Amino acid sequence: MRRRRRKYDLYLVVFLALFTLGYFIYNHASSESRGVENYSTALEAYKSNNYLEAYEKFGKVPSGSSLKKPALFRQARCATNLDNKELAIKKYNRIVRSGSKSTIAPISEYNMAVLMFDTKDKRAKKHFKKIIKKFPTSDYAIASEYYLGLIALENLPKNEKKLAKAKEKASIYFKNYIEKSPDGRFALNAIDEILKLDTKLNNYNNLLIAKAYYANGDYEKTKEFLNKTTLAESWSDFAKNEYKLGNKEKAVYYTELGLKQHAFNTEPKDVYEVIDNYIATFPARKDGITKLTTLGINSTGADYISYLNCSEVVSANVKEACYRTLYEKYPNGQFSADSLYNIFITKYLQKKYYDAQRLGFLHLKKFPNVKSSPAVTYFMGKIAYKLKHYETANSYYKKVLANYPDTYYAYRANYNLYKDDGVLPFGELTEKPVVFPYKKSLDNNLVVKLAYLRDYDLVEELCKKDKFIQSWVAYEKENYTISAVLARNAMDELETKPAFDDLRWRLVYPTHYYDIVDKVKGDNNPIILESILKEESHFNPNAKSSVGAMGLMQLMPATYNEVVAKHKIPANLDKETANITAGSYYYTSLKRMLGSKDLYAISAYNGGIGSVSNWFSKLIYSDTDEFVEQIPYPETKNYVKKVLRTYWVYGNIY
User: Fold this and answer.
1) So where are the chain's domains?
2) Hey, is 225 helix, strand or coil?
3) pLDDT tens figures, 338-387
4) pLDDT, mean of residues 416-437
5) CA max distance for the chain
6) What distances in angstroms separate CA 414 from CA 360, 374, 381, 646, one per listed residue?
7) In the beta sheet, which residues pair with residue 385?
8) d(Cα 616, Cα 67) in Å, to the nearest integer?
9) Options 2.130.10.10, 1.25.40.10, 3.40.1080.10, 3.40.50.720; which CATH number does 313-421 get?
10) Taking the domain 519-653, which CATH number applies?
11) Going by C-beta distance under 8 Å and a sequence separation of 6 or more, which residues neighbour residue 53?
12) How many CB atoms lie within 10 A of CB 10?
């Protein structure tokens, strides 16, 4: 009997456990379902500026839902918009007190602290300090420095010593802010507060203020505070500012003086920027570089000047000697890898394969992952093939594809590995939509859920440092050019590139206007046309270049009008369709005149058909690679590589 009772008790325990688990799962699923539904309807009311209704509906999101904290956050925003700051503070405080480690915590605490400051709540100071301690690298920590400066100015003591100390404390907070965020929203306010304190400013302080004014585009104020610094410390800032003011003579004066006397104490990036500005003041780029070489610079910037000078040399032998001198003088400098690459490629083009191979081994060992690494790895494959080491050649090509999959040289390596597939392995795209860039969950799935609920503003705030998410938000808001640029920059920053099925690639290479391209392509490869469109305008239909080229395909007005008249392009077409149609006809004409070769047509699209025709007679080349590497115009050479790289990546993604 006792045994039966135990068995019965065991069954009862198991039943109750399963029932509790089932109820929990059901309740959780129900909470999540109701949370999504209520949040979605509340968000619509919020977007319609109906904050009272939105507040009530966000309040209906169940506590068991993962959207509860975003709902509290939105309620706080509603209360703020309804000018009920005390209620907003309570809602933010619920998130903060929950001990949440999600990305919604720092922004909630910061917003709460700001509202406390506005309502003269003394707890604001504690929360600003807490933000700096808990989230030291966040934008909220930087902004907290500004508010702590304002708090330090409240109720200043009358005692002179204590007053001076309080002012100094406030000044430090403001200076910290403008040092960390010279272009921040509070930068100019922070400067005003520093000046009101009427404390003595040293050279560094004046330079700090000048840099903040410069970052905010107030160049007259920049000049005022630069004049309070020493030239030795600030010459590059003087030069950059005078260039912005349009005072080219003064910009040239400060540049030459600084490069001769003070450059050794200046950050290289600042020196390089000053040098670029200096060159831009001359009618021809080469004239500016030539002038720089006569100044006899031996400090910071000397290597950059030499590098620029070498890039202008036309003769192969002189170019090689120039880069060799640069490399030997600065073997570990910023331009040493590219200098060694240029010596290497010159030897290759001279068919001195063993010399080139020796230099290639050195480059790959010394500079394993730099901008020129894909090119060196690829040409080491070409050299191995020339020397009849076919397996070694293929291993180099495969290495390019594995390590540098999104480069022009991956496209070329693929061709050399699979020549039977033809020069253009991709003929058309299968369009796929741009979607949220991560399949896996972020922040316990919170950001992903908010993304699919189209709460773009909150996603943008929670993910300020993720450029891919910022790109996606810009895309959803139809800011396509900004989206593409943000995604491109984010992908460039990744040391290891993801596989081509990764959703982030679609943001870098979206298929805007491809439906039009495919309709008007004629005999052209539509992916080539799409690639030209992307590189020419970044999908901006209103793009206009410095020389007057216009639209998605960046056609000069005279060329556009000529093509429209010749091919009778209808006047009733929208400007995007008309521009792409004209671009396709123009590309077709270039291709027909250049032996039906896409490579030459792409070159002519940028460098002009006359130049390309001239290169046929002047350049000595036996294959595609030798032609491209010898294109005399650096801009055109880079353009060809960019378009074919884009073509290659589009093909792999779509």
Assistant:
1) 313-421, 446-508, 519-653
2) helix
3) 999 999 999 999 999 999 999 999 999 999 999 999 999 999 999 999 99
4) 85
5) 109
6) 20, 13, 12, 14
7) none
8) 64
9) 1.25.40.10
10) 1.10.530.10
11) 45
12) 10
